[in-house]
Specification:
By secondary structure, the protein is α/β, with parallel strands linked by helices. The chain has 9 helices and 4 strands; from the N terminus they run E-H-H-E-H-H-E-H-E-H-H-H-H. Strands 2-1-3-4 form a 4-stranded parallel sheet, sandwiched between helices. The longest helix is centred in the C-terminal third of the chain and has 23 residues, at 169-191.
């Protein structure tokens, strides 16, 4: 495809758990659900506000990604830059405070910057759309998100995804429950993930125990997840 790709930037503190999980899931889903001509028009990136640059994805976050069908083995933490914010068509952050930090760096990114949960709430209220065929259609859908920001107004704390770093397995499971359903709603709007698949991902993280030990993931996974519609 010609022209600039549609770029998503996912942000958290260290870029090893929340934003790493978000980026590998969105990248996987863009390949599964977009029309073939549009797959090459998407670039999913991630960064941290205080990233241990070059670090791998956290092992427990990676386990969750694998259980949901994504591969985080190639992820490496990156430090956020003003240029990365400016060039992104959509910036998804993990908390309300991070949203303010990003906008403090690049105030002009207001129309394209959302918390993950805010974007999910807005997308949930928008009509279901077919998968877009171009980067420009995806940019138009971000504009629609911004135009409907009022429907995503949050109660106190509803914008934040727990930072599980240094905490127990239950914190990682909570992270998944807070993050994955909203990401799936965003993927429905941007990539055409069907409503039934969105519901299935929500159910998967609500009911899954997520094995977070170092044993290999079984061939059928440890979560009853949607299979995804892979493009030929």
């Amino acid at each position: 495809m010609s022209g600039a790709p549609f770029t998503v930037l996912v942000v958290c503190t260290g870029n090893v758990n929340r934003s790493a999980l978000g980026a590998v899931l969105l990248d996987t889903w863009s390949g599964w659900y977009l029309q073939p001509a549009a797959v090459g028009a998407v670039r999913v990136t991630s960064a941290g506000l205080r990233a241990p640059v070059g670090s791998s994805m956290g092992s427990r976050a990676r386990r969750i990604a694998e259980a949901l069908g994504a591969d985080g083995s190639r992820h490496r933490a990156a430090q956020i830059t003003e240029d990365a914010i400016r060039t992104a068509d959509l910036v998804l952050v993990s908390s309300a405070l991070q949203r303010e930090t990003v906008l403090g760096l690049v105030p002009a990114a207001l129309h394209s910057t959302f918390t993950i949960r805010e974007a999910g709430r807005i997308a949930e209220h928008l009509p279901e759309l077919n998968a877009p065929s171009s980067a420009e259609e995806m940019r138009d859908r971000v504009t629609t998100l911004a135009q409907n920001r009022s429907v995503g107004a949050a109660s106190s704390g509803d914008d934040d995804i727990v930072d599980p770093q240094g905490r127990d397995d239950d914190a990682y499971r909570l992270m998944a429950r807070q993050e994955v359903p909203s990401l799936a709603q965003v993927a429905g709007l941007l990539f055409g993930m069907p409503a039934a698949e969105i519901s299935a991902y929500r159910a998967a993280v609500e009911t899954a125990a997520f094995r977070l030990d170092d044993e290999p993931v079984p061939s059928d996974g440890d979560v009853d997840r949607p299979r995804g519609r892979r493009q030929a």
